[in-house]
């Protein structure tokens, strides 16, 4: 697969002429979902789910479909009957030729006073795992972990321990829009030095084969 990093938590995967987009939210580019054959959304927060971007992508490609949890699906399914699929932990499906497994149920704790919402992660082709806003550990090996490095709900020690627990071959940074240039070398050094996996940072628009 070809993996392309978009801004923040959005990733594009391409294989056999098909494109799968994960979490084209409001912190990503306006065209983050453009050209998608299938879209996966982990949860309803604006930096992962932008209704306008999804509607534009579905309007542009009448064959495109979305897989997501109920909180997001309920906002789109009436406008696109039969094209918005509700999924949850343990589900498996095929989207635009990609085999997908769903892992996880809840968003990470932001603060005890804030109720937790639902969140799912997606393991694509048994190789690439996007956890959304959680530190979910799939019950099978992960080759490429999409690693949420900076968020209101995590701290750096948890990020490092998450890499250690998942034990991927490589970890690509996501959820990084709030990191400043000053902080990047610190995160790179600590995650790369302590995580126990190859640590890769792609700038938005850059691609790699996975």
Shape summary: globular
| Percent range of helical residues | 10-25%
Average of the residue pLDDT scores: 97
Distance between the termini: 5 Å
Question: What oligomeric state best describes the polypeptide chains here?
Answer: single chain
* Major sheet attributes: 7 strands, mixed
Instruction: Please count the helical segments.
Output: 4
Strand segment count: 14
Q: Please list the strands of the largest sheet in the order they lie side by side.
A: 6-5-4-3-2-1-14
Strand % is 25-35%
Radius of gyration: 16 Å
What are the secondary-structure elements, in order, as H or E?
EEEEHEHEEEEEEHEHEE
Query: Helix/strand/pairing class, anyone?
Result: alpha/beta
Low-confidence stretches: none
Summarize the structure.
With 210 residues, this protein is α/β, with parallel strands linked by helices. It is 19% helix and 28% strand.
Can you describe what's shown?
This protein has 210 residues and is α/β, with parallel strands linked by helices. It has helices spanning 51-60, 70-76, 156-166, 184-194; strands at residues 2-5, 11-15, 18-22, 38-41, 65-68, 84-86, 92-95, 98-103, 121-124, 128-130, 144-148, 170-174, 198-200, 207-209. The protein is globular. The termini are close together. The model has no long low-confidence stretch (mean pLDDT 97).
Primary descriptors:
210 residues, alpha/beta, seven-stranded mixed beta sheet, 28% strand
Please outline the helices and strands.
Layout: E1 2-5, E2 11-15, E3 18-22, E4 38-41, H1 51-60, E5 65-68, H2 70-76, E6 84-86, E7 92-95, E8 98-103, E9 121-124, E10 128-130, E11 144-148, H3 156-166, E12 170-174, H4 184-194, E13 198-200, E14 207-209
Parallel strand pairs: 3-4, 4-5, 5-6, 10-11, 11-12, 12-13
Antiparallel strand pairs: 1-2, 1-14, 2-3, 7-8, 8-9, 9-10
Helix pairs in contact: 3-4
């Amino acid at each position: 697969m070809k993996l392309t990093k978009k801004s923040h938590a959005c990733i594009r995967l391409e294989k056999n002429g098909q494109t799968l987009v994960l979490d084209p939210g409001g912190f990503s580019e306006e065209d983050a979902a453009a050209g998608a054959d299938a879209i996966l959304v982990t949860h309803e927060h604006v930096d992962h789910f932008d209704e306008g971007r999804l509607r534009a992508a579905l309007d542009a490609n009448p064959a495109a479909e979305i897989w997501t949890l109920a909180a997001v699906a309920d906002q789109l399914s009436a406008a696109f009957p039969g094209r918005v699929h509700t999924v949850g932990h343990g589900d498996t499906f095929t989207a635009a030729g990609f085999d997908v497994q769903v892992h996880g149920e809840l968003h990470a704790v932001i603060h005890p006073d804030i109720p937790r919402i639902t969140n799912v992660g997606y393991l694509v082709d048994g190789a690439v795992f996007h956890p959304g806003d959680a530190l979910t550990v799939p019950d099978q090996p992960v080759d490429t972990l999409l690693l949420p490095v900076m968020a209101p709900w995590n701290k750096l020690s948890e990020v490092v321990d998450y890499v250690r627990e998942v034990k991927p071959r490589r970890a690509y940074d996501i959820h990084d829009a709030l990191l400043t240039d000053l902080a990047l070398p610190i995160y790179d050094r600590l995650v790369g030095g302590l995580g126990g996996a190859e640590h890769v940072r792609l700038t938005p628009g850059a691609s790699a084969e996975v």
